[in-house]
Design goal:
heterodimer; A: 259 residues; alpha/beta; nine-stranded mixed sheet; two-stranded antiparallel ribbon; 27% helix; globular; B: 336 residues; seven-stranded parallel sheet; five-stranded parallel sheet; 9 helices; 29% helix; 27% strand
């Protein structure tokens, strides 16, 4: 089985996140990390390989982004991915949902013979959660998304997903696109020897031209025209309860016309 | 003589077969009217109440997609219907309410129709012919605006972004059937689909859906598993109930109620977090709330720091007292 796991380098949730003057997300090595739910995607890939049993298997971690984005691929290699690929090109900087999905799909086609494309359900910087659907559209594959439980048997994937007050069970034959949530599994923590072994692995780099994306910039269909930090919140009004805290809460809601 | 063409805005309206329109749909129709001529699209036969609401929202034309036996629950199938409707009415904009499923429908519709895609906007306006959507990002710390650079646009609108209002003049809400041929993607099969019961407590109070509620009362680790006080205040306020990942992991409450970046992200008018310290994931899911209230024994909790108003103390005392004060105030107002 050959699995491509799409991973993303995002600013850490604990860091001060923001935009550059060009209205692009600030990404640095210091306070960036692999998108947390992508760890669940890597773990799901490892579980699929285990479920597939004997045979030739390969897990390829794929990312799109500048040099710093290699950190996300490195993390996937530490967790047990076999190969790493990074797409990078100035023409692809600031790619929107379509630019991202188009570039990832082109790389997946180039890698070839891919049985499963795995992703996290959303990137925790943008939270659009649409790239998995766009990847399925670009590759013309069935999709299992917002997946909380994934099993593989008899050459097909079965997924349970819970969303918008509905629980669904879907089955997809391979090849397929799968996006998992943070409830799908518990990602392993790499051991020291895995971290050392990952260090030695080369990360292959694809440019836009070799993916047939020379015209990549034109695949974007949106443009960020404004990005401004919000003024900091004013200091909170704090009441310490000594019997009247509940009434104070009710009074706050009523006097501010909130109910 | 040149004349500016009026933009056709297609609004996907759900659940029209067995229920009234929900408030996010009415909000989307209200916004759509400011951007062009509204055409509503349904994937099921609209009931009488839904048609009345569409008329009140000023809608003249209602397209009912006829998908035959194709499973409309699969987003790609629904997207085929939306794309067919886009071609049929030459829509320049498709507006959907933000939900997990609608984001998927939106993505596939945009892919098929060559449209630009904006997700989770809280505003959408015409800026010299270009559509520009506004969105608060990074847990509510930055405001961004994004322009669509293609002729067509698909946009999902967050619930509670604006107030729903009836149109100045009602529309005719005439239904027109649109045959659509679509099939589930090869290799994909929907094995089972269970719609959860609407949450109602012992007294039969039905709460609004978390994702679209105007007021959310959330309980976390500090409840110690007792959600009674949270339910009490939520019922007094007509609010939805939310929770944190750790309360779900403890098995105290179902995952449906989880607020967070990979749970439900919310942007209610009022968020009340009780016994919640405020881990970054939870922050990311609720910080877009307009007013944030914290109830916590720890005055140093991160959620207290980002709140507008906080009560430091035991939620088991404070929430029921607040609920009682709100009820007595309501009763007094009803009597006067």
């Amino acid at each position: 089985m050959r699995i491509v796991v799409c991973v993303k380098h995002v600013p850490d949730l604990q860091s001060t996140r923001g935009f550059t003057a060009e209205r692009r997300v600030i990404r640095s090595a210091d306070d960036g990390t692999m998108n947390e739910v992508d760890e669940n995607a890597v773990e799901a890939a490892l579980a699929l390989v285990a479920a597939a049993g004997d045979g030739e298997h390969e897990i390829i971690a794929l990312t799109l982004g500048p040099d710093v984005a290699a950190d996300a691929v490195r993390r996937a290699l530490q967790m047990g991915a076999d190969r790493g690929v990074r797409i990078t090109d100035d023409a692809l900087a600031g790619a929107d949902y379509f630019g991202t999905a188009t570039a990832l799909a082109a790389a997946i086609r180039r890698i070839g013979d891919v049985d499963v494309v795995l992703t996290g359900m959303a990137a925790l910087d943008g939270l659009g959660a649409v790239v998995p659907s766009l990847l399925a559209a670009a590759l013309n594959l069935p999709q299992l998304t917002v997946v909380q439980e994934l099993t593989y048997s008899g050459g097909a994937l079965t997924a349970r997903r819970e969303l918008d007050g509905v629980t669904e069970t879907l089955r997809a034959t391979l090849p397929a696109v799968v996006a998992v949530t943070d409830l799908a599994n518990t990602p392993r923590f790499p051991k020291f020897k895995d971290i050392m072994a990952a260090r030695a692995k080369e990360i292959e780099v694809f440019g836009a031209a070799e993916l047939g994306l020379a015209d990549a910039a034109s695949t974007a269909r949106t443009e960020v025209v404004r990005a401004e930090p919000r003024p900091p919140r004013p200091e909170p009004e704090i009441v310490t309860d000594s019997g009247a805290g509940g009434r104070a809460l009710a009074d706050y809601l009523i006097s501010n016309n909130l109910i | 003589m040149t004349e500016t063409a009026v933009r056709t805005v297609l609004v996907l309206v759900e659940n029209t077969a067995d229920a009234a329109l929900r408030s996010p749909a009415l909000e989307a129709l209200t916004l759509a009217r400011t951007l062009g001529e509204v055409v509503a699209l349904t994937l099921t036969e609209p009931n009488r109440r839904a048609l009345d609401q569409l008329a009140e929202a000023g809608v003249d034309r209602v397209l009912q997609a006829d998908l035959g036996d194709a499973p409309r629950e699969i987003p790609v199938v629904a997207a085929a219907a939306v794309a067919a409707a886009v071609e049929h009415v030459r829509a320049a904009l498709v507006l959907l309410t933000s939900s997990f499923v609608n984001k998927e429908i939106a993505a596939h519709t945009a892919w098929r129709t060559g449209a630009g895609l904006l997700i989770d906007v809280t505003s959408l306006a015409d800026d010299g012919g270009r559509l520009v959507g506004g969105k608060r990002v990074f847990a509510g710390t930055w405001d961004t605006e994004c322009a669509i650079t293609t002729d067509r646009a698909v946009v999902t609108l967050r619930p509670n972004a604006l107030a729903a209002e009836p149109a100045a003049a009602p529309g005719a809400a005439v239904v027109e059937r649109l045959p659509v041929s679509a099939a589930a993607p090869a290799g994909l099969e929907l094995l089972d689909r269970v719609v959860h019961e609407v949450s109602a407590d012992a007294s039969g109070v039905v709460r609004p859906a978390l994702a679209e509620a105007a007021i959310v009362v959330a309980g976390g680790r500090g409840t110690a598993g007792d959600f009674g006080p949270v339910e009490d205040l939520a019922d007094a306020l007509g609010a939805a109930i939310g929770t944190t990942r750790d309360a779900v992991d403890e098995g105290w409450i179902g995952h449906d109620a989880q607020v967070g970046q990979t749970g439900v992200t919310i942007a209610p008018r009022v968020y009340i977090g009780a016994g919640i310290s405020g881990a970054p994931h939870h922050h990311g899911g609720m910080q877009a709330a307009r007013t944030i209230i914290a109830v916590n024994t720890d005055s140093e909790a991160p959620l207290v720091e980002i709140s507008d108003f906080a009560v430091i103390g035991d939620l088991h005392e404070i929430l029921p007292a607040a609920a009682a004060a709100i009820r007595s105030r309501r009763d007094a107002a009803a009597l006067s």
